Amino acid sequence: xxxxxxxxxxxxxxxxxxxxxxxxxxxxxxxxxxxxxxxxxxxxxxxxxxxxxxxxxxxxxxxxxxxxxxxxxxxxxx
Length: 78
What we know:
single chain, 78 residues, 81% helix, 0% strand, mainly alpha
């Protein structure tokens, strides 16, 4: 389930490769989808927490960007 949520989140975040994300399947890509879903959920929790933990927010924002970049590279090289 987490893999599908991650796929959908990435499809919204990366509209230029949405068609690739929709059709591609692989174990590596599924793991990236799951990792992205977990990272975005954690980021949302950190952002809503009071007091805010800015260091964790910055760290997870960077993690999400890195996963997004990894997914783009993976999809474009296939």
